[in-house]
């Protein structure tokens, strides 16, 4: 599954800028006017999930032994990208997609030209070709070697579990487990990783070689601070988080920043609300420190009338600090 591009995020923010740059913006409300309500698709799961036949795949390492007057023991033969294994005496033998018993029979037939009494036994020593990939908001994204009957929850555990964050003073998940997807042969399975972890067996399916599991960041439960701050970043939202706290967690306003014109972008990406806040006034004890809502984007600019190049140069470092830059950008 191809990682989602970060361009939609850039395009969305640029569109917001173009729309509101010349308008008089309302002040940010002291408290969010509407609470965040997340929506998740209810997936049916898979009732019939039989174990898959374990076959040889490119990258697997096998041991080929013969029982004969002159026995052969070849312990480290690798199945190449075309599914062949180079067997002593017999040469290349196509074993990709075969079970070990079928591969044994095929190699035995190839060796029979030289030793018609030999009996061949093939065993897998390293199932290096049997890998699934898990990406996104997990602690250790990457390739996971798949064993027979390995299930979805086990793959998540091997990846270190969902990514968490303690920056805001409380441990919070940065992963949207219910929004995770598992793609097999180009199609997403109707299963939920969140339901799998809650013990629902028809969601905790067997993982197969070639599966790609994507765990998106919990964007809706995060605050993102961008622009002229010490360290643009995204971090976990918690109830009651205030604007000054979020800016402080991002390293405070940089010397080049304009604290008198801070933007809070809130709501659905298709039709966000953009508010203005004067942090300088708050620091003087004037006004109220506004409460942030889950998913808010805070932008501290040097000048609201920035160029496209300046926007991207400010966004890239911030998105790179998140668990998966492309995931935050959806």
Structure description:
The chain is of the alpha+beta class. The chain has 3 domains: 7-38 and 219-328, Outer membrane lipoprotein wza fold like (Roll), CATH 3.10.560.10; 61-126, wza like domain (wza like fold); 131-215, Outer membrane lipoprotein wza fold like, CATH 3.10.560. Helix content is 20%, strand content 23%. The chain has 8 helices and 17 strands. It has helices spanning 7-20, 100-111, 152-158, 193-197, 243-249, 279-283, 308-320, 325-328, and strands at residues 61-67, 73-78, 84-87, 91-94, 119-126, 131-136, 142-145, 164-165, 172-173, 181-184, 187-188, 212-215, 222-227, 233-236, 262-266, 273-277, 297-300. The strands form 5 sheets. A 5-stranded mixed beta sheet has the order 7-6-12-10-11, covered by helices on one side. Strands 14-13-17-15-16 form a 5-stranded mixed beta sheet, sandwiched between helices. Strands 2-1-5 form a 3-stranded antiparallel beta sheet. The longest helix is centred in the first third of the chain and has 14 residues, at 7-20. Mean pLDDT is 78; it is low at 1-23, 34-41 and 307-330.
Mean pLDDT: 78
Adjacency order of strands in the biggest sheet: 7-6-12-10-11
**Overall number of domains:** 3
Within CATH, the superfamily of the largest domain carries the name Outer membrane lipoprotein wza domain like
Q: What's the architecture of the largest domain, going by CATH?
A: Roll
Span between termini: 15 Å
H/E order of the elements?
HEEEEHEEEHEEEEHEEEHEEHEHH
Radius of gyration: 27 Å
Q: What is the β-strand count?
A: 17
Helix content: 10-25%
């Amino acid at each position: 599954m191809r990682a989602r591009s970060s361009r939609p995020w850039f395009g969305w923010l640029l569109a917001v800028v173009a729309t509101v740059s010349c308008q008089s913006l309302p002040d940010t409300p002291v408290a969010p006017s509407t609470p965040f309500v997340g929506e998740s698709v209810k997936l049916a799961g898979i009732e019939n999930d039989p174990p898959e036949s374990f076959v040889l795949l490119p990258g697997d390492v096998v041991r080929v032994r013969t029982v004969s007057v002159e026995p052969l023991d070849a312990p480290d033969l690798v199945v190449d990208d075309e599914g062949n294994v180079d067997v002593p005496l017999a040469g290349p033998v196509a074993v990709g997609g075969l079970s070990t018993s079928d591969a044994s029979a095929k190699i035995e037939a190839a060796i029979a030209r030289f030793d018609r009494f030999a009996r061949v036994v093939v065993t897998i020593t390293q199932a290096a070709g049997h890998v699934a990939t898990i990406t996104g908001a997990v602690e250790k994204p990457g390739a996971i070697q798949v064993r027979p009957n390995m299930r979805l929850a086990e793959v998540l555990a091997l990846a270190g579990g969902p990514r968490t964050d303690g920056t805001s003073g409380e441990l919070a998940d940065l992963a949207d487990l219910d929004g995770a997807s598992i793609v097999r042969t180009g199609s997403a399975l109707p299963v939920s990783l969140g339901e799998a972890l809650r013990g629902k067996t028809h969601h905790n399916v067997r993982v197969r070689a070639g599966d790609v599991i994507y765990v998106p960041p919990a964007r809706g439960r995060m605050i993102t601070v961008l622009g002229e701050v010490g360290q643009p970043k995204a971090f976990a939202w918690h109830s009651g988080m205030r604007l000054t706290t979020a800016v402080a967690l991002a390293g405070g306003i940089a010397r080049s920043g304009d604290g008198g014109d801070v933007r809070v972008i809130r709501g659905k990406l298709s039709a966000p609300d953009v508010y203005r806040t004067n942090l300088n006034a708050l620091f003087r004890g004037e006004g109220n420190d506004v409460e942030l809502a889950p998913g808010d984007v805070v932008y501290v600019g040097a000048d609201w009338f920035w160029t496209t190049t300046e926007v991207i140069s400010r966004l890239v470092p911030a998105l790179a600090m998140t668990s998966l830059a492309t995931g935050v950008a959806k």
